[in-house]
Amino acid sequence: MVTRFHGVDRHIRSATVSQLNREGVEEKLIHPIRDFNAYIETLGPEDAVVMETGTGTFFWADKIEARGAQCFIIDPYRFKIIKDSWNKTDKRDSRNMAKALWVSAVTGEFGLPLVYKPSALTRELRKLYAQYQVLNKQIRVYKNTVQAVLADNGIVLSRVEKNHLLSEKYGKQMLEELDVSEASRISITMNLELLWNVLEKKEELVMEILRIGEPLKDQVELLITIRGITPLTALAFLADVGDIHRFKTLRQMNSYLGLVPRLRASGDKSWSGHINRASRKLTRTILTQSLIQVTDASLYFRNYYDEMKSRRGAGRSRIALIRKLCGIMRRMLLEGKPFKYTEVTLYTRKQKQYERMLNQIREDRERKSA
């Protein structure tokens, strides 16, 4: 039975804790706490802790729960006691959180605006995908810089020529044949070398994502039955949604992924706006890059996309198709069934390639550890 309720206002180097007893009376106020690990060591099954979400919150929540205590993580933007507070101090915030936790647990008068706590595997995948997106941004910067320098020299390359210039195999040789200024040649050379280095790191990162995501292999093999969905794309979707069963409806999941437009309603009128970008956006970003293959996955996808594009335009039709695709993947995971229009030959090839990559990862790790 929980007998102590802790409200923790945590910062990088310190924390403030308000501790209430079962009657809701504050027993102690600890300010500041410099050694948060030492504080956690004092916790046990009789304690319940509430913290605001922030950098490192899940790490400390794992440590708190390892001591047998309960840990609740709240969204400060939805916790009106803190959000609308005029006098916002560490002591006041910790006391407000402790009191709210006590009221929620003992009296049940209202609930806390809790934040979903992903599994350790999901959090690890999200970290790697965050770095993956950073590398993609860097790649775009280097490519655009090379393109701009070429334009400054009056050079327009065909698609094939540009691909050769950007490739490590042909890039240096092709650059020697271009008529550019000395400063331009130095700039292009530096950007190409940086580009090739980042591309190499990106390949290494992809292998690490597949290695970390191997426990989700069964779900990955289910999702790649859809044409255009690769293991990397499937793991991005799984990392974004976490536990698929926590979404009671498809709209809840789509809203979480930023695929549902904002809606305003007043009286008999309603307005539909742009999609909510303050959400998880990894799936939306990666699936956008696979839409060509996805539209070819079945005649149903192609007809749906073409019909929507003729009525709403290319931008909204892309989001609509991604929304439908995510709904199909959700249903596949819930029912454990493959895609209805699976191309057996293509799926078999993708599955074998995925298995070869996993085997290569295992062999490389065994070789490094030997």
What would you say this structure looks like, in words?
The chain has 370 residues and is of the alpha/beta class. It is 58% helix and 12% strand. It contains 16 helices and seven strands. The strands form two sheets. It has a five-stranded mixed β-sheet. The chain has a two-stranded antiparallel ribbon with strand order 6-7. Helix 9 crosses helix 10 and helix 10 packs antiparallel against helix 12. It is globular. The relative contact order is 0.07.
Which helices and strands appear, and what pairs or packs with what?
Blueprint: E1 4-10, E2 15-20, E3 26-33, H1 36-40, E4 47-52, H2 57-66, E5 70-74, H3 80-83, H4 90-107, H5 120-152, H6 159-166, H7 171-177, H8 182-212, H9 217-223, H10 231-241, H11 250-256, E6 261-266, E7 269-275, H12 282-288, H13 291-295, H14 299-312, H15 314-335, H16 344-369
Parallel strand pairs: 1-4, 4-5
Antiparallel strand pairs: 1-2, 2-3, 6-7
Helix pairs in contact: 5-8, 5-10, 8-16, 9-10, 10-12, 14-15
First-to-last CA distance: 49 Å
Q: How many DSSP E strands?
A: 7
- Write out the strand line-up for the largest beta sheet, numbering strands in chain order: 3-2-1-4-5
Look at the helices and sheets and give the structural class: alpha/beta
Calculate the mean pLDDT score and round it: 89
- Elements, N to C (H/E): EEEHEHEHHHHHHHHHEEHHHHH
Strand content: 5-15%
Q: Total number of helical segments?
A: 16
Number of domains: 3
In helices, the fraction of residues equals: 55-70%
Low-pLDDT sequence parts: none
